[in-house]
Design brief:
The protein is 37% helix and 26% strand. It is an alpha+beta fold and 164 residues long. The chain has two domains: 56 residues, no CATH class; 84 residues, no CATH class. The strands form four sheets. Strands 4-5-9-10 form a four-stranded mixed sheet, with no helix packed on it. Strands 3-11-8 form a three-stranded antiparallel sheet, with helices on one face. A hairpin with a 6-residue loop joins strand 9 and strand 10.
Length: 164
Amino acid sequence: MNLTIDTISFIVGVALFLYAVLDVEVSVSSIKLHRMGHSQRVRTSVIALIFTIVGIVFHYVPDGNAVLSVSTMIHSFDDVPNREATDFKNPTISNERLDICLIQGFGCGLDSANKWCRLHDFLISTSFQVDQVGLNKIRTISIGDNSICNNDTCTAFTSITCAR
């Protein structure tokens, strides 16, 4: 079984959280975890939530660039005037139209557009347009894992505007 950092963090986080909340004694093989006092349960719960959040962040942000993803959600293009912007029409990777999702079904829209912009030395996507190209039998490729969509639901960017 191949466990990644996101899976391990999530499992550890959930296990710690359940251990702290249920207030039970746990014994697995030669490891024994005794019951805790209230302050220890609170600390363990906080640590567990941190592990769980790290697992989720690494799962949904494949490049591990969580700080930039969070800052781009908070930051508005209008906050900083006179930025250089470029419009990419029908963006492609390896001659395949760019899918709107980082990974099939996850990180769709802004996350994927921002990733495209960062790969082209821009800071943020200020706007984008999409089209369900699968209806025309056009394949798409996800920017996060290079997976191919080859069905009627495939949706591609028709334009992405990026700003520095």
